[in-house]
Amino acid sequence: MDKYLDDDETARFEALAMPHLDAAYNLARWLTRNEHDADDLVQNAYLRAFRFAGGFRGGDARAWLLTIVRHTYYTALRDGQAERGDVSFDESLHDQENGGDPADIIASHDASRTLNAALARLPTAFREVLVLKEMDELSYKQIAEVTDAPIGTVMSRLARARQMLLSYLKPDVAGE
């Protein structure tokens, strides 16, 4: 039978977990490649974290939560919940109220779209270490905890991810 958390334990969980919600969503977004799936993943991961919060014995709460997000994602994949790959609607491009020139709006989004597309091309193992290091600013040790990989492997994956990302971002000289 599950043990329910009392008010003090609930407050402890909120203090422990809520500051890291953005980092959890960021990782989920890059793992799932889909905003809606990322929302679902974070919700499921936080439910798991809440359920097992009594077992958290201290340490790095962000690494603990990101590990749960990652494990929840891979469990869903293993259990056959396929990535849907639907295309999200970019409201900023279609917002009539923003008063901007459509060409300026598209140009301002071009660089981030190019980077996002290059990141999306990376294999998951490389993308996740790059996101954890560069976007969530985790240390090598924290990334090793989250991914359950040796620090040397984290460093190697990060170096390879950066090389691959740069190669994806280089203009195609032959095609120009």
Could you give the order of the helices and strands?
HHHHHHHHH
Extract low-pLDDT stretches: 82-98
Shape summary:
globular
Helix content: 55-70%
User: Helical region count?
Assistant: 9
Q: Classify the beta-strand content into a percent band.
A: under 5%
Whole-number mean pLDDT: 80
Query: What kind of sheet is the major sheet?
Result: none
How many β-strand runs?
0
**Rg from C-alpha positions?**
19 Å
User: Between the first and last Cα atoms, what is the distance in angstroms?
Assistant: 64 Å
Structural class: mainly alpha
Q: What would you say this structure looks like, in words?
A:
With 176 residues, the chain is an all-alpha fold. It is built from nine helices and no strands. The protein is 69% helix and 0% strand. Residues 82-98 have low confidence and may be disordered. It has helices spanning 7-17, 21-32, 35-51, 61-78, 91-94, 102-121, 124-135, 140-147, 151-169.
Quick structural overview:
This protein is mainly alpha-helical. It is 69% helix and 0% strand.
